[in-house]
Design a protein that fits this description.
binds zinc ion; 222 residues; 4 strands; mainly alpha; two-stranded antiparallel ribbon
């Protein structure tokens, strides 16, 4: 059984005390994942609880009671406030994108990228098509900078490429996605991973921007 409960937390920035929902995932999560890593079943919906937003000052963080000194000044910036209330995105996507801005400030580019990916998932759920594309473009930009700085954003290099290709495909950057895909297919990646690239290649050629999951790998005939 997984349960949602509420707990009181004090905002790191302004000290406001509010109640935040938390989830207790007492079952280990199994099941298919989307090609961009989004889990299925209950974990899929729990993404809404992965970021907390202070109603008082607008600070957004996975743990609202924690932060660093720079955060207090940073969230007063006009661009932060604009993002917080940007009508191109649903509210929770804005919370994730604000969290991304805070992570970018601290050069945590992998976390900044994932914040944008999670924002895209919220946009997907709520029919914000253009917002989802914008989030994925931001994620690609953060992840590319992460690679440049020698940071990783997934368990290994090949998995990073799979995520990047999926983000590019879903943000309509078909040429770049295809180029990355073909480069990986020329390499001697192991069989299971090659199938990911084959599936992405097929979707890219069809100009398919929708969500697909890893169960479709098994249906491929190569
Ligand atoms: Zn606050």
């Amino acid at each position: 059984m997984s349960t949602i409960f509420f707990t009181e937390k004090t905002c790191f920035v302004c000290g406001a005390v509010s109640r935040y929902p938390l989830i207790n995932l007492s079952l280990s999560i199994v099941g298919p994942r989307d090609l961009d890593g989004r889990p299925s079943q209950i974990e899929r919906a729990s993404v809404y609880l992965w970021v907390q937003r202070c109603a008082g000052c607008g600070y957004c963080a996975p743990e609202i009671s924690e932060g660093n000194r720079g955060d207090k000044e940073f969230i007063k910036n006009e661009f932060y406030t604009k993002q917080l209330y940007n009508t191109q995105f649903p509210e929770t996507a804005n919370s994730f994108l604000c969290h991304s801005l805070l992570m970018e400030k601290d050069d945590k580019l992998s976390d900044a990228g994932w914040g944008a990916v999670f924002g895209a998932w919220i946009c997907d759920d709520n029919g914000f098509k253009d917002g989802a594309v914008l989030c994925r473009k931001k994620a690609v930009s953060f992840f590319k900078k992460a690679i440049k700085n020698g940071l990783s954003f997934a368990e290994n290099r090949v998995q990073q490429q799979i995520y990047l290709i999926d983000l590019l495909r879903r943000s309509l950057e078909f040429d770049e996605a295809l180029e990355l895909c073909d480069k990986e297919l020329e390499k001697e990646n192991d069989h299971e991973l090659i199938d990911y690239f084959n599936l992405e290649r097929e979707l890219i050629l069809k100009k398919d921007t929708s969500c697909h999951d890893d169960t479709e790998i098994e249906e491929l005939d190569y």
